[in-house]
Specification:
Distance between the termini: 63 Å
Radius of gyration: 21 Å
Strand order of the largest sheet: 3-2-1-4-5-6-7
Order of helices and strands: EHEHEHEHEHHEEHEHEHEHEHEHE
Largest sheet: 7 strands, parallel
Structural class: alpha/beta
CATH topology of the largest domain: Rossmann fold
CATH class of the largest domain: Alpha Beta
């Protein structure tokens, strides 16, 4: 007689909106397990809405913790406090799996170090963090990244620290949930690669989470939209708006202004320049994750943007949408262009 399947205890370390959406997807998919959300991000204000969502949907995340971010002037004192909290949580709820979107985060590695003392079958799991999962870390071939940084981190944190050349490849990770496993970076190929079920993003429960997070923005009107423009960090255009002006002029031949929405980068400050360039267009909240809007879009809505994780996520969550890239005073790296074209994201004609 076979013994009944054990219900697992899963930890989800969340430090970005994308991490939250993937964590929610996986928690919904593991609904018979105990799922615990652990938030840690320096954008405390933006984090509050996601913490509130995790707490509200207690059938998805049975417990939620919001840990202090340690990247400031009092880093050592805050890190010690954070480590103590992690240790207490682990002793109360011993995890079977710990999920993270960034295994280079010290909080995740410390949690793995502590948790393995209580559970020798503990597993570390990487959650897709966008383009870096397929292209690798930007400093992957630099001497400091490969040799100096790992030494300093071991001195600062302890011998348990591991410095992966790119996220998802550390010794703590045994498996990885990816949107496009077949495109994974070679350093992730030694892990067990699992495709994320994008159908969960259109499930009733996930749509409820999405609606909860957008209820504070009643001004958003997606009914007439035929096009959304996702803009990069403004440093790529603020000192030379010719690229923006050219894009606006080209699009005006095929779209009315009220059919277009502009999604500025979350750190954009010169919104006046955008409103002048894209006069009459709707402006979506810059700090609202694109992931929140995707479930609500008509399938005929087109998405245009710089070659970024936003477009990658868009094509993954909504494979039925047409997604195009546009260069604004930048040249797309060939490897990134090849990745995008392989999943059906093409340059705007």
């Amino acid at each position: 007689m076979t013994s009944p399947k054990k219900n697992m205890t899963n930890y989800f370390f969340i430090s970005s909106p994308l991490h939250f959406f993937i964590a929610s997807n996986l928690a919904i998919s593991h609904s018979t397990d105990k799922n615990i959300a652990i938030f840690i991000t320096k954008n405390r204000k933006n984090c509050e809405r996601y913490v509130a969502a995790a707490q509200y949907f207690s059938t998805v995340f049975q417990q939620t913790y919001n840990l202090p971010f340690t990247d400031d002037k009092k880093i050592f004192r805050k890190r010690r406090h954070c480590f103590n909290q992690i240790k207490r949580i682990i002793s109360s709820h011993v995890p079977d799996k710990i999920f993270t979107g960034n295994d280079r985060r010290v909080e995740f590695q410390y949690a793995m170090y502590e948790a393995q003392k209580h559970n020798n079958t503990l597993q570390g799991v990487y959650m897709d963090d966008g383009a870096i999962s397929y292209l690798g870390h930007k400093s992957i071939n630099k001497f400091t990244h490969k040799h100096i940084d790992p030494l300093l981190k071991k001195i600062a944190y302890g011998l348990w620290w591991d410095s992966p050349l790119t996220v998802g490849s550390s010794k703590w990770i045994s498996s990885a949930y990816l949107a496009f496993p077949e495109q994974a970076h070679p350093l992730l190929e030694s892990k067990k690669l699992i495709p994320i079920d994008h159908k969960v993003f259109s499930s009733a429960l996930f749509l409820q989470i999405s609606s909860f997070l957008t209820k504070s923005h009643p001004e958003i009107n997606l009914c007439k939209l035929k096009l959304i423009i996702c803009l990069p960090c403004e440093k790529f255009y603020v000192n030379d708006a010719k690229g923006l002006e050219s894009l606006a002029s080209k699009l005006s031949n095929n779209y009315q202004a009220d059919e277009i929405a502009i999604k500025a980068h979350p750190r954009s400050k010169n919104i006046a320049l955008l409103k002048e360039t894209f006069e009459g267009c709707q402006f979506l909240p810059a700090n609202l994750g694109m992931e929140l809007l995707l479930p609500k879009l008509d399938q005929n809505t087109n998405i245009i943007g710089d070659v970024s994780t936003t477009l990658l996520t868009t094509k993954w969550l909504r494979p039925d949408l047409s997604v195009f890239t546009v260069e604004l005073n930048t040249k797309t790296p060939p490897a990134l262009q090849r990745l995008f074209e392989s999943i059906g994201i093409t340059p705007l004609a």
